[in-house]
Design goal:
The strands form five sheets. The chain has an eight-stranded mixed sheet with strand order 3-2-1-4-5-6-7-8. Strands 14, 15, 16, 17, 18, 19, 20 and 21 form an eight-stranded mixed sheet that branches. The protein is globular. Helix 1 (29-40) packs across helix 2 (63-75). By secondary structure, the chain is α/β, with parallel strands linked by helices. Strand 19 (573-582), helix 22 (584-590) and strand 20 (594-604) form a beta-alpha-beta unit. The protein has 29 helices and 23 strands.
């Protein structure tokens, strides 16, 4: 089976019918991105756009759609280039009839109601009733979009508002109209969640929905209040980032990222749809002198010659400059001196008395006011509003979680002290004990305490721990009962790195499993970004500083033995992999009998960059997997993956490198990985689990070209590392084979020897100090 034939695992539920064929109309940035992501998720797609202007007979009438597909391939919209084969280009003049065979039609044409209505009239006569029909509009109400069309069209219609880029942005806002059939809304949500891996926000049919309604207001407030406070770009961005848990772009960097040219396209549309007394009307970006200057001079941000910041000057030289908000000329970036920028969290920054702290309070209070005001209008509870900012704007915590971090009562006191009216929802939070009173409840948008919404089929370690308890735990990891005889080894270290405590808990899990405390083991956690980011290098430096090679040898061997024991355990072991699985973390993933991976998996062996090689079984397992995958020269494939330092950009690419196998599963939703891993573990038990048989491994012939022949021009440090990897994978004679047990000690010997070398030690220390690899 080729990579283009592989299909993701779809978490099923009663009555759910997946989408198999889709048509996306509109091949712009969003339409082509949506088409690419549908293809990533195993859906066959036709992408339609208009016929190019002045096309002659015999010329390419689908050039616009074809070019858009090519852009997505180059820009990473497809998880692997082969998935572009799932998208067929077409045009709306010749190919619109394909909608008759579609399960879902997504409209992503220009934001003009007349253009959309003309298209919908044509679609209404071609599509099958019961076909999902949606628009990617970012603000036109459902009522306006379905006006004048058939009852059947309106019952099948929703808004599905994707965020850019559709592949990686988790949020999808879904809006139903008064005439939308409940079953069509439900199927749209299920497809978005279970097939596309999106976190769905059910929004009311209001201007801007949730994320952009609040997010655009925050951007306008943060920019204009910075001008009013006399702050410079650097200070405002520093305050509107780390202290609030907002990406380091801050506000002005975000304008540059999305494009200042979007201001006249989006902000006036939103404000025209809002009442005259809406707070957004008080923050007019189009009337501001700085924004006017940028737009009149084509300074639109990263896609232009500059914006609030620029990286190249007019001569094309690399610079790090910002626009001076008084002179409107570019100048060198200056260090930020306001103490508010150094605050570690929201409570600290709001407690300050500097100009920057006053700015932080003004912006936060205005945004919290607005969030409280719009919550009853846009959603059912405050969690929906927070999710909009967390998933749509990458805030670590939305405004209501930030308010809880400061304390609702403390905020009310400050409101009253400054003579600011206290929002009713904030007063309700004081009475309830916060916007999120406990792990199970949340404040509704009307101010009452309600249960938090739980998505069917989603399992978390935290929920399992509350429901079933913990079998064993330490600072480094816990063994949590997931129910049904399945346990979970959940790492607790920073970025789930592997230290001696993790190895000890692996050993503990093996003992508990062998004694019958559980029937199957899942390795996974609730960490949003990492399965395991690798070995904790500080664990090794202890032995380097002590000049204790035998202690180092014992630690490496202990981890190697523990991981190997997982592979051969009497019970099935399934890894629930998501985010980073690097180095020792990748080796932990390979210690499982099966892997259920999120589609966005960043796996690989970067050990060479820190002076090492994979020594917890990674080198040998790469050989095992290459052999089982049918590689003609398994040792060559294993050498490439263990020495390249490359990290996969998706689970599918990891599969091409044999870090995942044909028996492993890929899931689109990051939130469903753990539950699906548990289901796979139970399935292995039901099928009569037996540990995998040992294999005899073919080694590289010493008479062939050496595996490291291409490294002659590399640094002395790199040559030493790749030579040791080649030595492990090369036999002493043509046709030589070896068992895993014979090769594993060679990994340990090589790792210990390499870490005795000063140049290799320099790489370890440099990474620990700078978090960047040293090329020495």
């Amino acid at each position: 089976m080729t990579i283009a034939d592989r299909q993701p695992r779809i978490p099923m539920t009663d009555g759910f019918t997946p989408v198999r064929r889709a048509v996306v109309i509109g091949a712009g940035t969003m339409g082509s991105g949506i088409a690419a992501h549908l293809a990533n998720c195993g859906i066959t797609v036709t992408l339609l756009d208009r016929v190019p202007d002045d096309v002659a007979d015999g010329e390419d009438r689908v050039a616009l759609a074809r070019t858009a597909i090519e852009r997505q391939v180059k820009g990473g919209g497809f998880m692997v280039p082969e998935f572009a084969e799932r998208v067929t280009p077409g045009n709306v003049e010749d190919d619109l009839a394909v909608v008759a065979d579609a399960d879902w039609i997504v409209e992503a044409v220009f934001e003009d109601p007349d253009v959309k209505h003309e298209l919908y009239t044509k679609l209404d006569g071609l599509r099958r009733p019961g076909t999902l029909m949606s628009s990617n509009t970012s603000g036109i109400p459902v009522a306006e979009l379905v006006r004048g069309h058939s009852v059947e069209f309106a019952r099948d219609f929703t808004i599905t508002h994707f965020f850019n880029p559709p592949r990686t942005m988790e949020l999808l806002e879904v809006v139903a109209g008064d005439a939308t059939a409940p079953e069509m809304l439900e199927r749209t949500i299920q497809v978005a969640d279970r097939q596309l891996g999106k976190t769905v926000l059910e929004c009311r049919d209001t201007p801007g929905f949730i994320a952009n309604r609040l997010g655009s207001h925050w951007m306008a407030v943060a920019a204009l209040e910075a001008f009013r406070a006399g702050l410079d770009v650097e200070t405002a961005d520093a305050i509107m980032s780390r202290p609030f848990g907002i990406p380091r772009t801050g506000v002005f960097g975000l304008f540059d990222l999305v494009g200042v040219n979007l201001v006249p396209l989006l902000w006036p549309v939103l404000t025209r749809a809002l009442p005259a007394d809406d707070a957004a009307q008080r923050y007019d970006l189009m009337g501001d002198r700085v924004f006017t200057h940028l737009l009149e001079n084509g300074l639109i941000g990263r896609r232009g010659p500059g914006g609030f910041t620029r990286r190249k000057n007019a001569a094309g030289e690399k610079v790090d400059e910002v626009i001076d908000l008084d002179s409107l000329e570019y100048r060198a970036r200056r260090p930020v001196s306001d103490p508010a920028a150094a605050a570690s969290d929201v409570a600290e920054v709001l407690a300050g008395d500097s100009a920057g702290a006053q700015y932080a309070w003004t912006v936060f209070a205005q945004v919290l006011d607005y969030a409280c005001h719009i919550a009853p209008e846009v959603g059912d509870d405050v969690a929906a509003v927070d999710a909009g900012m967390e998933l749509g704007y990458a805030w670590k915590r939305g405004p209501f979680k930030l308010a809880d971090a400061v304390g609702a009562a403390e905020l009310v006191a400050r409101y009253e002290a400054s003579g600011r009216p206290v929002p009713a929802l904030l007063s309700a939070a004081v009475a309830a004990g916060g916007f999120f009173p406990d792990a199970d409840t949340v404040l509704s948008s009307s101010g009452s305490v309600v249960e938090r919404r739980r998505v069917e089929g989603v399992l978390t370690v935290a929920d399992a721990e509350r429901a079933h308890g913990v079998l064993a735990e330490s600072e480094s990891a816990a063994i949590v009962d997931l129910g049904d005889g399945v346990a979970c080894l959940a790492l607790r270290t920073k970025m789930n790195t592997c230290d001696a405590g993790v190895i000890e808990m692996v050993e503990r899990a093996l003992a508990l499993g062998e004694s019958g405390q559980f029937r199957a083991l899942v390795i996974g956690s609730d960490h949003p970004r990492a399965f395991s980011a690798g070995a904790n290098l500080a664990t090794f430096t202890h032995f380097i500083e002590a000049d204790d090679p035998e202690g180092l040898r014992a630690l490496i061997r202990r981890g190697q033995v523990a991981f190997a024991a997982l592979r051969s355990a009497a019970f099935p072991v399934v890894a629930a992999a998501k985010g980073f699985a690097l180095g020792g973390g990748c080796e932990l993933m390979l210690a499982a009998n099966r892997v259920v991976s999120h589609a966005e998996l960043f796996a690989g062996f970067p050990e060479r960059s820190v002076g090492l090689l994979p020594a917890w079984g990674g080198t040998v397992q790469s050989l095992v997997r290459a052999l089982r995958a049918g590689e003609a020269e398994p040792a060559v494939a294993a050498f490439a993956v263990t020495t390249s330092c490359e990290v996969s950009t998706s689970a599918w690419q990891a599969g091409e490198w044999h870090l995942l196998t044909g028996s492993d599963e890929v899931v689109a939703s990051v939130h469903r990985v753990l539950a699906e891993a548990k289901a796979v573990a139970l399935g292995l038990l039901e099928s009569g689990w037996t540990p995998p048989a040992a294999v005899e491994l073919p080694l590289h012939s010493p008479d062939a070209e050496p595996l490291d022949a291409g490294w002659a021009e590399a640094s002395k440090t790199d040559r030493a590392i790749v030579a040791r990897v080649a030595g492990i994978l090369t036999g002493d004679r043509p046709g030589a084979t070896a068992s895993e047990e014979e090769l594993l000690p060679l990994e340990v010997d090589a790792a210990v020897d390499l870490l005795q070398r000063p140049l290799n030690q320099e790489r370890v220390w440099h990474l620990l100090k700078t978090n960047k690899p040293l090329k020495n």
